[in-house]
Write a structure and sequence with these properties.
Blueprint lengths: L3 H17 L14 H14 L6 E5 L1 H14 L7 H4 L9 H8 L18 E7 L23 E8 L3 H14 L12 E5 L3 E7 L3 E8 L31 H4 L6 E5 L4 H19 L5 H19 L6 E10 L3 E10 L1 H11 L4 E4 L6 E6 L2 H8 L26 H11 L8 E11 L4 E10 L19 E8 L2 E8 L3 H4 E5 L5 E6 H11 L1 H7 L4 E10 L2 E9 L25 H15 L9 H14 L13 H18 L3 H13 L3 H12 L23 E6 L2 E4 L2 E3 L2 H12 L8 E7 L5 H11 L5 E8 L5 E6 L11 E5 L17 E5 L5 H8 L7 E2 L10 H12 L2
Parallel strand pairs: 20-23, 23-24, 26-27, 27-28
Antiparallel strand pairs: 1-2, 1-7, 2-3, 3-6, 4-5, 5-6, 7-8, 8-9, 9-19, 10-16, 11-12, 11-17, 12-13, 13-15, 14-15, 17-18, 18-19, 20-21, 21-22, 24-25
Helix pairs in contact: 8-9, 9-16, 9-18, 10-11, 14-15, 16-17, 17-18, 17-19, 18-19, 19-20, 21-22
């Protein structure tokens, strides 16, 4: 069965395929759609999906017919394997089936009687199961239960006959083995995989297909009724999404893609949880507790790194379409009021230079005062904390598109001062582009009147004899002009005011020789086109728009978008962002693995006190107050699990005391379970532990005390029952594989009381055993031992304990090779463990009945015999 992460990647790739086009012959509808008919339906469908989905994809099959030839022409120049990967979506009649398969609903054929193909399909994808506030997302996932919830998708299929389309899809699901899950009591629902589901909801002019899949759950997870929420509820529908400038722009293209970047942190946290949960699934049993702790530490740390800035955009839309004379890519960004204020400041008073050269082969400019935008945003609400790291690439610190300006400022302020400046505008003009050389001029308007390197300096000859340039002050800024093969003062004129944010013009015929020389692959991709033009503008007080045109023939121009009629209320954002950010920082600090020294109950209590002090704001947080108990319990539960794994049950009980006292019934239940557990007090050995060069953690723990026996916390009635419980853990192992069982025996137990267990364990196939003890550093250590004799090539060193006899071994701190330890029944286990710790080469513990030291002639004879090579 494919992994959840691989299925998630498949769905992402499918979206990319749809967005990038396909390269195969297929049936296409013969005529273009009626745009006026489709527009309002598409916008209403997008709104009806709510503001939860991170991505919305709109596919118009009839506009696809015009776009297809262009994509077919570009296909040979796409990355290797990309075109072949798009074959599955070549035929628009198969789009619904392909999308369902990517969502784990694998039906080789899907009947679609009643589907209205004159309207686009709408896919609302990647609705995170738990979203924000940033800093508390990972803490809201059931990671300590070993689970990752399902993620939700919707497909809104237009229908001429919704009932008929529902029946045909239902028949396809049933024909391919999908069945109604036992938990579904109403509605048309089918189970998908082990824990997913698909539901059909007929509406007035469409059928809504809702899919929840991709989660990972341990066996028996849903036997607990309270866990049902992690499966997802098909009856839950959120409020309609606001009609932003982007939502209102989601029609009129062959492919429309809307992205809500404020969902970025929650989606990345969910995806990271999937990847780490799959690592947990292959981890050794003894590593589960530490893996879960590290999992939460990494995910919460990444949230802290992402930042918790208020969003500057509500959504971003990309649209791809084709006409007879051009290929068009457009973008619309819906600004929040915070983002609009930053853009206002960024565009105010920023000009560009007039171009003296008529009709250059290529020219363009962009104006956006980054420093002014940063000034409008003010201080960061979530400064990047020192020392926090993320499992992702370092660039993740600066990737949070919902607050691109705020997060870039946050990242910039976390660095040591460099004296660097920012651009308010930049422009270029290519004056000549031949296969031999490219001549050009550049101009940059720097923010700030001071701190510009070389201000007031003539730069002629810098970088080459043909370079020309200078830096001049212009009011509160500086302008850098520089040219290669061209004098910038002959290319650029005086500053002039413009209304747009950016322009680009490239005469591909004029730059073709240079392109062919510098980048043949790019030249091949652009060969069908005559010209590239871009217009970027502020289309309303709350919208940015751009239109990029790849002209084939004629004179198609970029279109200007008028969105002045649209205003909306942005989705509510959590208050007190600093609180959720502090929570994330405090959680990471509380659960982080100690750099040195043993982990003790006192250390855990100290960390919990610091955590509680740093997160007092939770009680008054408008969003987090309702889940305060769950958020506060996390570090206590993690530490209790960690201490119990170290057989420090008393400390684990103490760590949970504060959480239980606050009325947390689950914490109290855990305390009761810890008190009832077999909790041996391990021997404390003064011997320096062996350094094997690699960890020797036991896969499972056998705990032994006067209260009884347990195997990884599960009590066993007697040694024979424990031996039987080992069978399933060792079954089907290859001949050269095994499992190690750590013997955690109470230090005050007599050897005779442990002997029946040791006798039961002898001869267990594929099983190795080690003795657990605490070293002089206070840490838990282990020494692998033998319970059955094996041939030795060197003399045996014996340590015989008890019986009043003189031990045959030597005393001291040095390590002993080929050690054999025996003891009489009354010897305390702590002495046995100390003797075994004298060796780093798997000492033999004699466990035969009456295995105590022999005296007199027999002991002397055996000693002389064993010492012979």
């Amino acid at each position: 069965m494919p992994s959840a992460a691989s299925i998630h990647r498949s769905l992402v790739f499918t979206v990319a395929c749809f967005a990038g086009g396909c390269t195969c012959d297929r049936h296409v509808p013969p005529s273009p759609p009626d745009a006026a008919k489709a527009d309002d339906w598409v916008v209403r469908a997008v709104e009806s999906a709510g503001d939860g989905p991170a991505v919305i994809l709109v596919l118009d099959a009839r506009r696809w017919a015009t776009l297809y030839p262009h994509l077919r022409a570009l296909a040979p120049h796409m990355p290797e394997g990309f075109a072949a990967g798009l074959d599955a979506i070549a035929d628009p009649s198969q789009w619904l089936r392909v999308a369902l398969k990517a969502m784990q609903v694998d039906v080789p054929t899907a009947d679609t009687v009643g589907w209205d193909r004159s309207r686009p399909l709408v896919f609302a994808l990647f609705e995170p199961p738990h979203d924000g506030p940033v800093g508390a997302i990972a803490a809201g996932l059931p990671l300590l239960l070993g689970a990752v919830p399902n993620i939700r998708h919707q497909i809104i299929a237009p229908a001429t006959d919704p009932a008929a389309l529902t029946r045909s899809l239902a028949s396809s699901f049933a024909a391919h083995g999908l069945a109604r899950p036992a938990w579904a009591h109403e509605g048309q629902i089918w189970g998908v995989g082990e824990s997913g589901w698909v539901a059909l909801v007929p509406e007035v002019d469409a059928v809504r297909v809702i899919v929840a899949s991709g989660g990972l759950f341990p066996p028996g997870f849903f036997t607990e009724p309270s866990h049902a929420k992690y499966r997802g509820d098909p009856t839950v529908r959120g409020a309609a999404a606001p009609r932003t400038a982007g939502v209102a722009s989601m029609s009129g293209d062959a492919i429309g893609l809307l992205v809500r970047p404020q969902k970025y942190a929650a989606l990345r946290t969910w995806e990271g949880a999937l990847q780490l949960r799959e690592l947990e699934s292959i981890a050794a049993p003894e590593q589960i507790v530490s893996v879960r702790q590290k999992q939460l530490e990494i995910l919460a740390g990444c949230e802290v790194v992402y930042g918790n800035e208020a969003p500057e955009v509500d959504d971003v839309v990309l649209g791809l379409a084709a006409t007879d004379d051009a290929l068009r890519l457009r973008a619309v960004a819906s600004l929040t009021r915070r983002g609009a204020a930053a853009v206002d400041r960024a565009a105010a008073g920023v000009d560009v230079l007039a171009v003296k050269r008529p009709d250059p082969p290529a020219s363009g400019w962009w104006r956006f005062g980054l420093k002014a935008a940063w000034d409008a945003l003010g201080e960061s609400a979530s400064p990047l904390p020192a020392g926090f790291k993320c499992h992702e690439d370092r660039t993740a610190m600066n990737i949070a598109p919902a607050a691109a300006l705020g997060n870039s400022l946050r990242y910039r302020r976390s660095l040591a001062a460099t004296g660097s400046t920012s651009y308010a505008s930049m422009q270029f003009v290519v004056t000549e582009a031949s296969s031999a050389s490219v001549k050009y001029a550049l101009a940059f308007l720097y923010d700030g009147a001071t701190g510009v390197p070389g201000a007031g300096t003539n730069l002629d000859g810098v970088g080459g004899v043909e370079s020309r340039g200078d830096i001049r002050p212009e009011g509160s800024r500086h302008r850098l002009r520089i040219g290669a093969g061209s004098d910038p003062n002959e290319v650029f004129g005086a500053p002039e005011s413009v209304g747009e944010l950016g322009r680009l013009h490239v005469d591909l015929a004029g730059v073709a020789p240079a392109l062919q020389s510098e980048s043949p692959p790019l030249a091949a991709v652009l060969r069908p086109f005559r010209r590239i033009e871009l217009l970027a503008e502020r289309s309303s007080s709350r919208a940015l728009a751009a239109d990029l045109v790849f002209a084939l023939h004629g004179d198609p121009k970029p279109r200007s978008f008028d969105r002045t009629a649209f205003d909306w209320t942005s989705p509510p954002q959590p208050g007190d962002r600093a609180c959720s950010q502090r929570y994330g920082q405090a959680l990471v600090a509380a659960i982080r693995t100690p750099d040195e020294g043993p982990f003790t109950g006192e250390e855990a209590l100290r960390r919990l006190a610091a955590f509680d002090d740093a997160t007092r704001c939770l009680a008054d947080h408008p969003t987090l107050a309702a889940s305060e108990a769950e958020l506060r319990r996390l570090p206590a539960f993690i530490h209790a699990d960690r201490l119990a794994a170290l057989l420090l049950h008393d400390d684990a009980v103490r760590v949970l005391a504060g959480t239980c006292a606050r009325g947390d019934s689950e914490a109290c239940a855990r305390q009761d379970a810890l008190r009832a557990a077999i909790a041996p007090r391990l021997p404390e050995v003064s011997q320096v532990p062996c350094d094997y060069g690699f960890p020797l953690d036991a896969n499972y723990t056998i705990a032994v005390s006067a209260a009884g026996l347990s195997l990884d916390g599960v009590k066993q009635a007697e040694p024979a029952a424990l031996r039987g419980a080992l069978g399933p853990l060792l079954a089907d192992l290859p001949a050269d594989h095994g499992r190690t069982f750590g013997l955690g025996v109470d230090r005050d137990m007599s050897f005779g009381s442990v002997l029946p267990l040791l006798e039961a364990l002898r001869g267990t196939p594929h099983a190795g055993f080690s003795v657990l003890f605490r070293g002089p550093d206070g840490r838990l250590h282990t020494v692998p031992i033998l319970l059955d004799p094996v041939p030795r090539d060197s003399p045996v060193t014996r340590i015989a304990l008890g019986g009043g006899a003189r031990a045959a071994g030597r005393k001291g701190a040095e390590k002993l090779d080929n050690l054999q330890v025996s003891a009489t029944d009354e010897v305390p286990w702590k002495e046995v463990a100390a003797a075994l710790a004298r060796s780093c080469s798997m000492p033999l513990l004699l466990v035969e009945p009456s295995a105590g030291p022999k005296t007199g002639r027999q002991a002397r004879q055996e000693a002389r015999s064993a010492d012979r090579p």
